Amino acid sequence: MTPPDPAGAPAGAEAHHRALEALYAAAPINRLFPSMLAIPEPGISRIRFEVDPAHHHAAGAAHGTVYFKMLDDAAFYAANSRVTDRFLLTTAFNLLFTRPLKAGVVTAEGRWISGERRVLIADARLLDADGEEVGRGTGTFMRSHIPLATLAGYARQG
């Protein structure tokens, strides 16, 4: 593989965002939940995924683990997009289920709310294929002692 051309490589916040997207894609859990993360700007994240009947509980709708995983990830990456040196850890997450989620394409949208030094707050919402909100959550995230640069998958370009 040829390294990217430094002249065309992303720099600064954009390089950090692309590296976080690569980190998300490399996480083993995402083999169970195929999905794609995009960080269009600092403090904002979007995860697109498809709910499959394999994710359903006995009554035919998505199990709560799907809601939590995608809402936590969206809020987490919105927050970590504001922190360039350390991996964040989820310390608390409040979840609200607003309607059942059937099979189909779903988008989790994360948004940083406050904090950048030690504790950060971010929220997220899940939108079904029709754009209807099906769940929302708010998370508290804390800086860990883990440097992002040491994590497999976090590959900053530029």
Keywords:
158 residues; alpha+beta; globular; disordered N terminus; Thioestr_dom; HotDog_dom_sf
Write the layout of secondary structure elements.
Elements: H1 12-26, E1 35-41, E2 44-51, H2 64-80, E3 86-97, E4 104-114, E5 119-127, E6 133-147
Antiparallel strand pairs: 1-2, 2-4, 3-6, 4-5, 5-6
Give the CATH level 1 class. Answer: Alpha Beta
Low-confidence stretches: 1-5
Strands, total number: 6
Compute the average pLDDT: 92
Structural class: alpha+beta
What is the overall shape?
A: globular
Determine Rg (CA atoms, Å): 16 Å
The H-and-E topology, N to C, reads as HEEHEEEE
Give the end-to-end Cα distance, rounded to a whole number of Å. 16 Å
Largest sheet: 6 strands, antiparallel
Reported CATH architecture: Roll
The CATH topology label is Thiol Ester Dehydrase, Chain A
CATH superfamily: Hotdog Thioesterase
The DSSP helix count reads 2
User: Roughly how much helix do the residues carry, as a percent range?
Assistant: 10-25%
Question: How many domains comprise the coordinates?
Answer: 1
In percent, how much strand structure appears in the residues? 35-45%
The strands making up the biggest β-sheet line up spatially as 1-2-4-5-6-3
Describe the structure concisely.
The chain has 158 residues and is of the alpha+beta class. The protein is 20% helix and 39% strand. The chain is built from two helices and six strands; from the N terminus they run αββαββββ.
Report on this structure.
Residues 60-133 form the Thioesterase domain. The chain is α+β, with helices and mostly antiparallel strands and 158 residues long. The chain has a single domain, classed as Hotdog Thioesterase (Thiol Ester Dehydrase, Chain A, Roll), CATH 3.10.129. It has two helices and six strands; from the N terminus they run αββαββββ. The protein has a six-stranded antiparallel β-sheet with strand order 1-2-4-5-6-3. Strand 1 and strand 2 (44-51) form a beta hairpin. The longest helix has 17 residues, at 64-80. It starts with 11 loop residues before the first helix and ends in an 11-residue tail after the last strand. 31% of the residues are buried. Mean pLDDT is 92; it is low at 1-5.
